[in-house]
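User: For a benchmark we're assembling, each entry needs the component sequences followed by a predicted structure for the full assembly. Here are entry 17's components. Please fill in the structure.
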Amino acid sequence: MCSPMARRHRPLRAVSLVFAGFVTLVLLSQLSAHFFAEAIPKHLQAQNAAVISSIQQTSTDLAFAAAALGLVFAGAVLLITRQRVAADVDVYRATGLQSSSAFLRLLRSHSLAPLAWVAGAAAATALVDVDFGLNALFPIGLAVSFACLLVAWLAFVTSVSFSRKGFEGGSGGRAG
Amino acid sequence: MVEKVRGLMWIELTSHAPTIIASCIAMGFAGYLATFFDNASWVAAEAAGTTSPSFAPSAILVVIATLPSIFVVLGVYALIDANEEALRYEVGVFCSQGIDGDTVIDVWSALYGWLPIAAYFLGLLGYLAFTPGVIANLQTGLPDIITGLFFITGMATLIMIPYKLNGVLDTSPYTVVRS
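Assistant: Structure for entry 17:
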């Protein structure tokens, strides 16, 4: 049975923060290009075309860099939390569940909160992007990448756990 | 005691190296991004004139410059949160070696707080160093910009990270041993 403390510390809460934070960071990079262009009056835009283009290019590059950094950060958090997820898979396996059932249970217990956070952040970001006439596909693409990364990672952890021999074959001693 | 603290710092640095490196890279990136936003704001204000109605968007860019570090600090907080079990266990081990909780917090704060702040500073300087003309652009306001960004990032980091680390300490077996 889980104690209230254990229930409060859900394993992948950190992933939710990272997913939502980096989707918002990409939005900030997009907004910087927009506000930069807004800051220069229409009649001055022609003579500052080179500067505007340079700043907008850097802004796009930084948005991509933020997305890449987010994926690396999310990967790091998933690696760090691997033991907790693997422990859950081992419990499911010990109770005799098939790998597909264990995977579905894992999805239900570990992926709902992060996916809800990233979906919320992506929806808010897309609304802002559409409102300012920016490319909403970029943050949505990042959110989808985060979701795929999480689901693929959970599938990987499940398959690794189920591909091992029985618990008695592990390096640890036999129970009892 | 100094030897023990030095040893503790080294053990923590090597055992949590991936987490610390990821935090430092992200904070360095946030510093780079912040200086870029500030430079873009200056270029926009210079092109448009600060008295025109377009002053508002360039002011918004200055506000945006403070945000990347806040999001990255949240990311570092999340990394510590993910490491919580391991850190809680380590407190117990260090306690059994005669190192008190405050020393552990100081070491953790240095690794997860001060090192990322130093990386943020390097990121700030990195944009200035590798982008021609930025120092000339921001010359008069540069000290204020760096001080302001550094202050906001430092406050966010040194409030959130020690708060989280103290939370880890309070919920660890160390507290039980001490009481």
